[in-house]
Design goal:
With 215 residues, the chain is an alpha/beta fold. The protein has helices spanning 4-17, 19-22, 29-37, 69-79, 96-104, 115-127, 163-167; strands at 58-59, 65-66, 86-90, 107-112, 133-136, 149-154, 169-179, 186-193, 199-207. A hairpin with a 5-residue loop joins β1 and β2 (65-66). The protein binds S-adenosyl-L-homocysteine. Residues 64-67, 90-91, 93-94, 96-97, 111-114, 117, 138-140, 155-156, 210, 212-213 line the site of S-adenosyl-L-homocysteine.
Length: 215
């Protein structure tokens, strides 16, 4: 049966196999430690506990999914977070990615549109001792009152990069976002904003996410 150690080896293998596309040769020590510290089994539904250490996405409530651990790892790595930074996540889901982010940086804000998921994730994060700021709302508009962010991570597939998110990224900031049609393979993009506010983007990997819903 898979355990945390076998999962880490799987993730590291996937990182090596995709390094030509992602530009990430290996995970940094702090990202590996963050992944090792977050108890993924606490973020999955009870009936999926045994699969918690498999390197795959799993169903959560509201027909949504907790992302594949390798994808969480690579998206987190691409953000190159530092402890003093502030990060916004769009798509709280189970709260797992938010917990990984909170292991790496001091201020994590996360937005979810499903009330049930928002309630469960905020309770779960609190009970595990994570001081993540959870919000119920439409991530398409970002979180203007807390902007700008040093990093933005979108964990649902957008048809296009939402303009408010581009605006809420700080100079020098990084955003990872899957873009494309839901139900098809999408493209994970890395955007970097320079000090003049200019955005550069590059394609990282083909991915498969649930849709970023536009209400
Ligand atoms: N990061 C999550 C997995 C996210 S699944 C985890 O670690 O478990 C994608 C999530 O994005 C779903 O919970 C979905 O409800 C949410 N979502 C989709 N569109 C959204 C929107 N417009 N605003 C906020 N959340 C959205």
């Amino acid at each position: 049966m898979a355990n945390q150690a076998t999962l880490m080896r799987q993730i590291e293998l996937d990182v090596r196999l995709t390094s030509a596309e992602t530009g990430v040769a290996e995970l940094s020590t702090n990202v590996k430690q963050a992944l090792a510290r977050v108890p993924r089994e606490k973020f999955v539904l009870p009936e999926f506990r045994l699969e918690a250490w498999d390197n795959c996405a799993l169903p959560i409530a509201c027909e949504q999914t907790i992302s594949q651990p390798f994808i969480v790892a690579i998206m987190t790595e691409l953000l190159q977070l530092k402890y003093e930074q502030r990060v916004l996540e769009v798509g709280t889901g189970s709260g797992y990615q938010a917990a990984v982010l909170a292991e790496l940086c001091g201020e994590v804000h996360t937005l979810e549109r499903h009330e049930l998921l928002y309630r469960r994730a905020s309770q779960r994060l609190k009970s595990l001792g994570y001081g993540v700021h959870c919000y119920l709302g439409d991530g398409f508009h970002g979180l203007q009152e807390q902007a700008p962010f040093d990093a933005i991570i979108v964990t649902a597939a957008a048809r296009m990069i939402p303009r408010p998110l581009m605006q809420q990224l700080a100079p020098g900031g990084r955003m990872v976002i899957p873009v494309g049609m839901a139900g098809y393979r999408q493209t994970l993009l890395l955007l970097e904003k320079d000090q003049q506010g200019e955005l550069k983007q590059r394609t990282v990997l083909a991915v498969s996410f649930v849709p970023l819903v536009e209400d």
